[in-house]
Amino acid sequence: xxxxxxxxxxxxxxxxxxxxxxxxxxxxxxxxxxxxxxxxxxxxxxxxxxxxxxxxxxxxxxxxxxxxxxxxxxxxxxxxxxxxxxxxxxxxxxxxxxxxxxxxxxxxxxxxxxxxxxxxxxxxxxxxxxxxxxxxxxxxxxxxxxxxxxxxxxxxxxxxxxxxxxxxxxxxxxxxxxxxxxxxxxxxxxxxxxxxxxxxxxxxx
Amino acid sequence: xxxxxxxxxxxxxxxxxxxxxxxxxxxxxxxxxxxxxxxxxxxxxxxxxxxxxxxxxxxxxxxxxxxxxxxxxxxxxxxxxxxxxxxxxxxxxxxxxxxxxxxxxxxxxxxxxxxxxxxxxxxxxxxxxxxxxxxxxxxxxxxxxxxxxxxxxxxxxxxxxxxxxxxxxxxxxxxxxxxxxxxxxxxxxxxxxxxxxxxxxxxxx
Lengths: 205, 205
Known about the structure:
Two copies of one chain form a homodimer.
Chain A: H1 3-22, H2 29-36, H3 40-46, H4 50-73, H5 79-92, H6 104-112, H7 117-143, H8 153-174, H9 178-195
């Protein structure tokens, strides 16, 4: 990575933290200048506009989110265990969000839905990645007799994502981990009782 | 209502619509002047600051939300039917949100959680109202043998609110009513199968 590219990456990361706390509209260029220690011209040398910086910052934030999910799912082979691991990543946001300010997908989705089509598309793309991950996990799990054949992966995906993101919102709003704990516990039980295929050849079965 | 009070109410309502679409930080005083047809001095005659206007606007938005829930629950006597009606109100947000721009409680919660303690407290108070409504519905329902005695009203409340608010976020982000439909359907089935007390004296029972 050249020095210019390094600076670009650093500015995107520092801006991502500001945007995730204060919102895109709530973060001024002067706040970004202060956080990065760069003059306005120095920032505009790397990004054509605040909008371009916002997109690069979201890409950085999304990479942090992706890393969390990759770490959480690493080593989980059974499809039902992978679904529970997906929930556990969100549960961990109560103590340690992927970025200061909470979930950048939730924050960006809510701010951009009516106002910023490019950011909205970026947030939507992460949701689509999660949806594809859960759908393929369910599809492969059905093929391997790990998931009950009647499970609808598309429905399950949206239900899991909605519940955990809503719980992130409540946990941050109320300053209380209970919403994330309850959501996790309910969905985990749902996966164990209605999604995981009971083993046919269990000892004594 | 005097003329001054009428103007104050109208400005709060018009500002609420702008804030709910663009966010508090994303709404300039000049946008509010344009929407209300008032000069800056005319707005500041009624509100000491943009912050005061934001609080009054949230109070207006919350009153619209409260009206939706009051309408949705009107005439529902059975505790389990009241819980389903609570979900139906959120489900209706897909076609007709209480305010242009979606759910003002979700939007305000996400924008204010790190940055604006007064707005955050206002959004938190609506969540507490919903939580108290569901808890008392469950408590009364258990006493009247309409709800299973093992149901934990506090847990159920946070789970229902998290899921439906997360589904509102997804439905708006993706421009697709499916997340709200799936969330509603899953939670309704949960209420019917695990929350509603089966009638003991059903015909043939």
